[in-house]
From TrEMBL:
Stated name of the protein: At2g35280-like TPR domain-containing protein
Originating organism: Panicum virgatum (Blackwell switchgrass)
A Pfam family annotated for this UniProt entry: TPR_27
Domain of life (superkingdom): Eukaryota
Domain At2g35280-like TPR as annotated: residue spans: 69-131
Length: 250
């Protein structure tokens, strides 16, 4: 019962870290309950970011590290981003943490992991599977597309949307900038460069008219294949990061 109470505080409080600290001080039973891994996994860490990140960065980073050890999805995502984009030797562990967050349903973690794997030359199909997770598509490729009429090739009328990717991209870019601000001079705002649809390198043979075209009145596009979609997202995401970070990753 004590663990359940502490878990509700962690999940619903506007300041979960501070409230859990107060709860821990109330009695011995609550102290033990608040230290349970199940409680740590439920902490809504994103609610603490605005208040703690700039006012008490060291404490915030300590909280992220502690909660990532419990499997908290947001903490695993933040720790994974830091390891992948700011600590070259720790990238495998960073990818592992991103995968842990993605497995818990964290869509932004799945988005970042997909692009990192794709950029590294993923041959297992994991990058594509994570992008499908972001878009809420079925695991099978045949069930994931969006029929928009007119067809996208000689043999199919399936198009692929990046609607959720657009939302996740904004959060991902901000997370990387916060994790790597010491690597680049960010005093002046860095403009978000709008990349054109990826230029085909000849290996995919995409000659479909309208692939990468923006939907009317929307920020998202449609693509003739999953590969075109993930190449486009890779171009968009890395174009919006500071050059020092992009050079470091590449």
């Amino acid at each position: 019962m004590a663990v359940e109470i502490a878990g509700l505080v962690a999940a619903t409080s506007p300041r979960p870290v501070d409230d859990l600290r107060s709860l821990r001080a109330s009695c011995r039973a609550m102290r033990a309950a608040c230290g349970d891994r199940a409680v740590g996994r439920r902490v809504a860490l994103e609610r603490e970011a605005a208040a703690m990140l700039w006012s008490d960065a060291e404490r915030y980073l300590a909280v992220v590290g502690s909660l990532s050890a419990t499997g908290n999805p947001e903490a695993c995502f933040l720790a994974g981003v830091a390891l992948v984009f700011a600590h070259r030797r720790a990238r495998p562990r960073g990818a592992e943490l991103l995968g842990q967050a993605a497995a818990a349903g964290h869509k932004v973690a799945a988005y970042v992991l997909a692009l990192v794997l794709y950029k590294a030359g993923d041959a297992s199909g994991a990058a594509t599977r994570h992008i499908r997770q972001v878009e809420g598509e079925a695991a099978e490729a045949a069930g994931g597309g969006v029929g928009v009429g007119g067809g996208c090739s000689k043999n199919t009328t399936t198009w692929w949307s990046n609607e959720e990717c657009v939302r996740c991209r904004a959060h991902a870019v901000e997370a990387v900038r916060q994790a790597t601000w010491k690597m680049a001079e960010l005093e002046a705002p860095v403009p978000a460069v709008v990349a054109p649809p990826p230029v085909d390198d000849g290996s995919h043979g995409c000659t479909v008219s309208g692939c990468g075209s923006r939907e009317a009145w929307c920020d998202w596009c449609v693509f003739c294949s999953e590969d075109c979609r993930i190449r486009y997202e890779c171009a968009m995401f890395f174009s919006q990061l500071p050059l020092t970070v992009v050079d470091f990753v590449t």
